[in-house]
Amino acid sequence: MSVRAKKHLGQHFLTDKNICEKISNQYGNHNNCNRVLEIGPGMGALTEFLIKRGDLEVYVIDVDRESIAFLNSNFLQLQNRIIEGDFLRMNLENIMGKEPFAVVGNFPYNISSQILFKCLDYRDQIPEIMGMFQKEVAERVAEKPGSKTYGIMSVLLQAFYTINYCFTVDQHVFNPPPKVKSGVIRCVRNTRDKLPCDEKLFIQVVKMAFNQRRKTIRNSLKQIIANPTFDHHFLNLRPEVLSVEQFIELTEAIEGIRISE
C-alpha cells in the first residue's frame, strides 16, 4: 500500500532517508520539550526517524484520509496519536492539551505560511518549530534586516522566535519533485513573553509598512498617523532596514501619540 500524492494538498513526499534523518536530528528539544506534532506526515518518511530517536512523544496530523489509513497500518506504535484533521482549523488544545509541544514537518508548501502564523497564535505553548518549507519561504522567515527578502513574516516570527536556516534540499529527493528547492529552518522561542507595545498595532504597522515597501515608512503609515506634527527618525526609512526592536520602538511612539490625543 502506498499513498498517491495529491496536488490540491500540496503533497511532495520526501524519499531520501538520509535527508529525513538529517531533518529529524535538527529538532533540539528546546525548553526540554519532548512532545512533537508532525504536520502532513504523508507516508511517514520523517515520522520514522522522529520515532527512532527514542526521546520524543510523536503525534501526527494529516487531512488526507489515505495517509491516515497508511499511518494506522504501518505505525502501530503511535496508537491514538494519529490525528485526522486540518491543522489550520483545529483548536490545538483539544488535541495536545495545555502542555508544551513542538511543531515539525515537511510542510505542505501551499499552506506553510498559514502554519507559521497559526503557531504564532500558540507561541506560548510551542517552544520550537522545525521543518521544511519552500526555499523562498524559509529564507524569508530567517532573513535579517537590510535584504529585499526580509519582510512581514520575518519581523512577526522573529519577534517571538530565534530562527536559523539549517540547509537546502534539492527537488530530486521528492515524489513528485517540486519545481523549486526547499529549505529547512529551526525556530526556537525567545525569552520575550509579550511585546512592550500594543500587539495589534505592531502587526498593523509592520504589514502596512511592507505592503508599500518601496515607499518610506512615513508614506506607508499615513492612514494610522493622524497627527501631522508627529515625527520619528524611522519614518524617513524603508521598512526592510528596521529590526524587530526598531519596529517595536516605532509602534510605541505611535501608540504614545494616540494615547495623548
Task: Explain what this protein looks like in three dimensions.
The chain has 261 residues and is α/β, with parallel strands linked by helices. It folds into two domains: 7-189, Vaccinia Virus protein VP39 (Rossmann fold, 3-Layer(aba) Sandwich), CATH 3.40.50; 199-260, Orthogonal Bundle (Helicase, Ruva Protein, domain 3), CATH 1.10.8.100. Helices cover 36% and strands 18% of the residues. The strands form two sheets. It has a seven-stranded mixed β-sheet, sandwiched between helices. It has a two-stranded antiparallel ribbon with strand order 1-8. Helix 8 crosses helix 10. The longest helix has 17 residues, at 244-260. The chain is elongated and about 70 Å long. The protein starts with 12 loop residues before the first strand and ends with a helix. The relative contact order is 0.12. The mean pLDDT is 93.
List keywords for this structure.
261 residues, alpha/beta, Rossmann fold, Helicase, Ruva Protein, domain 3, 2 domains, 7-stranded mixed sheet, two-stranded antiparallel sheet, 10 helices, 9 strands, 18% strand
